[in-house]
Amino acid sequence: MPEDNATIARRWYQEVWDLGHIEAADDMASPDCKLYGHAPGNAPVGLQEFKEFAHSIRAAFPDVKIIVEQTVSEGDRCVVRWRSEMTHMGVFMGAAPTRQRVTVHGMSLIRFENGKIVEGWDNWDQLGLLTQIGARPVVNLAKAC
Q1: Is the pTM above the cut of 0.90?
Q2: Could you give the CA distance from residue 111 to residue 114 in angstroms, rounded to a whole number?
Q3: What residues form DSSP beta bridges with 102?
Q4: What is the end-to-end Cα distance of the chain in Å, rounded?
Q5: Predicted local confidence at residue 1, as pLDDT
Q6: Residue 55: which residues within 8 A CB-CB, separation 6 or more?
Q7: What is the CA radius of gyration of the chain?
Q8: Which residues pair with 105 in a beta bridge?
Q9: Contacts of 23 (CB under 8 A, 6+ apart)
Q10: Residue range 95-139, pLDDT digits in tens
């Protein structure tokens, strides 16, 4: 019996991110998939570029854990609301390791064809991550107004 889309999505986060089996992405995604949210300007990346991105995250945050908080599936799409907990142990975007424990929230919309990921849109709190590791200053919006 084929896996449903939410099960594949959960497996993606567990295998690729939590376990660091980045090559498992080859089994769950189409080789010509387009993924958004991992490159400047939200430009789409292919599977190989995504795997390079995942390796860079895991090098900087080797204990990354993705907690899937909710999934909603309909037709060929699945939305995943997630949070990531990890420790900054390697250089990330020029920021030296801080050993700071961080939490990042995000959502992903994934489109499937024939049980494979063909498109994915990730939106996550990149500024929050950079602020938590000290790569960007904390701005108090209440005082800025």
Answers
A1: no
A2: 10
A3: 86
A4: 56
A5: 46
A6: 22
A7: 16
A8: 83
A9: 51
A10: 999 999 999 999 999 999 999 999 999 999 999 999 999 987 666
The residue to which tokens 């090098």 are assigned:
59
Match 């084929």 to its residue by tokens.
Answer: 2
Those residues with Cβ within 8 angstroms of residue 27's Cβ, 6 or more apart along the chain or in another chain: none
Rounded to 5°, angle at Cα 122 from 20 and 84: 50
> Is residue 76 scored above 50 in pLDDT?
yes
Per-residue pLDDT reduced to its tens digit, 44-74: 999 999 999 999 999 999 999 999 999 999 9
User: Which residues, including other chains, have CB under 8 Å from residue 121's CB and lie 6 or more apart?
Assistant: 35, 36, 37, 108, 109, 110
* Cβ proximity of 86 and 61 under 8 Å: yes
Q: Given CATH 3.40.30.10, say whether it is the number of domain 5-135.
A: no
